[in-house]
Amino acid sequence: GNSVTQMEGPVTLSEEAFLTINCTYTATGYPSLFWYVQYPGEGLQLLLKATKADDKGSNKGFEATYRKETTSFHLEKGSVQVSDSAVYFCALSPRSGTASKLTFGTGTRLQVTL
Amino acid sequence: SAVISQKPSRDICQRGTSLTIQCQVDSQVTMMFWYRQQPGQSLTLIATANQGSEATYESGFVIDKFPISRPNLTFSTLTVSNMSPEDSSIYLCSVPDWATDTQYFGPGTRLTVL
Fold first, then answer.
1. What integer is the mean pLDDT of A72-100?
2. What whole-number distance in Å separates Cα of residue B109 and Cα of residue A108?
3. Hey, is the C-beta of B97 within 8 angstroms of any chain A C-beta?
4. Which of A41, A93, A106 comes nearest B101 by C-beta?
5. Which residues lie below 8 Å from residue B99, measured CB to CB, with a gap of 6+?
6. CA A6 from chain center: how many Å?
7. What is the rounded CA–CA span in Å between residue A97 and residue A99?
């Protein structure tokens, strides 16, 4: 079956540091890949997505590139802020048009300090 | 994008009791989903609620424990029955967005069972 593996947290960074959160997946075919963010006390929000190999999703300074050869979708940001402190979830849907079949990773908590 | 609200936002309950969680969407949707997020864990799909038909439950979840109602296209309820401390989780509802091939999530209901 489908699965998503994320690096374990928590990740603690100083403000303006570079962020990488690793995500790898197992799926047949051509899944769509997502990063969701959950701020303290709030529900999940879609951060970015990519639907095919070599696509780059980006939003709010975050980026992730769909790498089919390494089955990865690592999240990066060049300079984190305190307001980026949250839990980040990598997720996949098995193919385009199957938004109902999301598989999530376990989440990575990011803590950014001044 | 859909705006989703949930009630209650949090509750503390005694074991053996039941709690009904409400999910309201600001637009009509065919499918609604209910997830459980146990402490430190990822999201697990409980069931899919379609208006006018019985909910479809994922492996490990049964209707007697998690009865779901879907009276119209904007509303659903999830009941957690005969609760035990193991039911302490965040419960989230979501709806698919076929245009972006992903899901929008409600803010969640944080349940603590003593």
1. 89
2. 21
3. yes
4. A93
5. none
6. 8
7. 6
Geometric angle at alpha carbon B98, from A53 and B21, rounded to 5°: 120
| Nearest-by-Cβ selection for A100 from B48, B105, B106 | B48
**Average pLDDT of the segment spanning B44-59:** 90
Cα atoms in the Cβ-side hemisphere of radius 13 Å centred on B31: 16
pLDDT, tens only, A12-45? 999 999 999 999 999 988 888 999 999 987 888 9
Partner-chain contact B92 A46, CB within 8 Å? no
* Separation of alpha carbons A94 and A13, rounded Å: 33
> For chain B, first and last CA: distance in Å?
37
Q: Is B106 touching A (CB cutoff 8 A)?
A: yes
Give yes or no for a cis peptide into B8 (omega within 30° of 0): yes
Of B42, B45, B101, the CB nearest to A32: B101
User: Both tokens of residue B96?
Assistant: 């698919």
Averaged pLDDT, B74-96: 95
Maximum CA extent, chain B = 42
For residue B83, give how far its alpha carbon lies from the nearest alpha carbon of chain A (Å): 23
Q: Do B101 and A51 touch (CB under 8 A)?
A: yes
Chain B residues with CB inside 8 Å of A107's CB? 41-42
* Cross-strand partners of B23: B6, B76
Whether B53 has its CB under 8 Å from any CB of chain A: the answer is: no
Q: Which of A43, A49, A98 is closest, CB to CB, to B92?
A: A43
